[in-house]
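Page 47, continued from p. 46.
Same chain as before, 566 aa.
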Amino acid sequence: MKDAKVNMNRAPLSEKDIDKAKNFDQLMKMNAEPPVKIKWAKIGGIVAIIGGVLGYIFWPGNNREEQIDPQKSDKQQTETANSEFFKQTEVPYTHYVVNGGAGDTIVTPNGTRLIFPAGAFEDKEGNVISENVDIQFREFHDVPSIFGTNVDMTYDSAGTTYHFESAGMIEMHGFKNNKEVFVNADQPIIVELNSHYPGDHYNIYFMDPDGDWEFVSKDTSKYEPVVMIMDTMNEERPPVENYLVIKSKEDNYKKAKNELNQKINEAGLIVPQKANDELFSVKLSFKEKEFPELKGYKGILFEVTEKNKDFDKSLTKQEWTDIQLSKEGEDYLMTLFGKQKIKLIVRPVFAGEDMEEANQNFEELFAAYDAAHQGVLSAAREQMTTAYQSYKATEDSVINVINQSLNQAAWSDELSQKAYNVRRIFEVDNFGFWNSDCPQNLPKGQEVDPVFVNADDELDTLTFTNLYIAEYDKNAFFTYWGEWGHKKYINDKGEEKKQFISLPFTFNPKSETVLWAITNKGELAVITPEELGKVTFSKKAATTIKMKLHKKVIDVSKIKEAIGWK
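Result:
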C-alpha cells in the first residue's frame, strides 16, 4: 500500500490560477526563456511548444473529483495488530485435482465454472505438466468475505487512491508434489465467475506480487448481462463447447483486426482513440512535418500510457528546461529535461467532444491511401468486418439458447426477489487474486471528528488501527488507514505516557452506513446504520461514536451478523 494523507480542506485551483495558465502568449512575451513548469491540474488547458521553445504543460487528469486520501499507517504494524482476528475469519480454500494433460471443467458450489484446457500448467522451467495438479481455490462475493480475508481493496490510479466496489473476486493457486506450478500463457484458464451484480461498469484487475492491483481490461468478457437464476432453469445450460466456439471466432476477429491495424500503421495513419479517464494527458503543439501521421487532426492530446510503470507524482513539483517529443517504433516518447532526464511513453488521443471530427479526418485519409494502393486497406477492413459478424452471430445464438432454457413463469415470479446473476468470463494467465471491480471515491457528505467509545461503557475509549465504512446498497467497503484512541509512548524522561489520537472521516448520511473496526483487544466494534442515525454531529467539537463490541467473531458468518450484512 502506498502512503496517503488526510487532507479534508484541499484548496481547488482558483480562477486566477487558471487564467494565469491560459494566457500563454503573454507569458512567452514576458519571459522568453523561463523554466518549463509542468502544470498538473484537473481543469483548464495550456499548450507547450515542442522544438526548443519553452512553455507550460497542462496535465488534465481524469474527470473524477479529487478524493480525500485517508491517513495510512505502517502496513506491517497494522497487519500485526489484526493478524489474530484475520486468522480466524479468512475464507478457506477448496481443493480440486485437475489432470494437466487432459484438462477439466469444475463447477464450484457458488456456480462459478473453471475451465482448464489441456496443457494449462507448466513448471518454473516452462515445461508443460501432464500429471495431476492440486488446485487451491476460493471466491468472494460480499463485503464480509472480502474483509474477513484481509484483502486490500484500494487501487491507486494516477496518484489517487480509489476503493473497489466488487462484482466478485477469486483466488487460485496450483501445486504439484507441494511445489508451486504456473499457468501456461498459451493455454490460459477460463473463469466464468457467477456474479450477483449486473452492469457493464466493472473492470478486471489482477493483484501483482507486491500486493498492488493492476488494471487488466474493461469487463467486456461475458456473454451479455443476462438474468441467470439457476434454480429456475428447466434445462441444462449450453455446454462449455459453445463458449469455445465463440472464443475461436473471437480469436479470428482479433487476428483480422490486428492485420488491419498493421496495414494502417504501414500506411502511416493513426486510428483515433478516446482519452482514458484514468490516465493523465498533455496537450502539445508540434511540427506536422516531423509527425506526418498526425497531420490534419485537431485537439490531439498525448496520454501517458500504462507502460510507464514508474510514473512518479513527485514529477509535478519539478521544473524543466526543455521538452522533446519523438517517435520510437509505434510509441511516442516525451522527454523532459531538468535536474534529471525523464522519458515518458505517450500516445495520441482525443477528448470525447473531438472524436467525431477526428474519425471523419481518419476516414478521408483512409480513402485517399486506399485509392492509391489498390484498395489494400478496404480489403483488410472487410475481412475484419466479416470475422466480427460471424463472431457476434454465434455469440448471440448462444445467448438465445440460455434465455430459452429459463423457465419463464418462474423467472417472472423470482425476478423481484432475487439478484441478477451474470456470467463474467475472463482468462487467467497467472495464479493469484483476480477481481471484477469498479473503483469508487470515499463517501462524502458528513464530516466527523470522532471519539470512539464502548456502547456499554462510555468511559471505555476504544483503541484501534483502521476504520472501515460500508453502505448496504453497495458491495464495497472503504478503509481509513490510521490510528484512533490511546497510544503509549516514552517521553524525554523515560516515562511511559498515553496520547489520544483521532483522525477525521466522512460518510454519506443519505445511505445506510455501517462503521466497524478491530480493537487492540481483538474485538469487532460496530455501529449500525440505525444507531449512527441517532448520533448528533458537532461542527466545533469531537463527536462521540458508541460502538457495540462483538468478542467471539470466529468466521465470516459472524462478521456478517455483526455488521448486519444481508
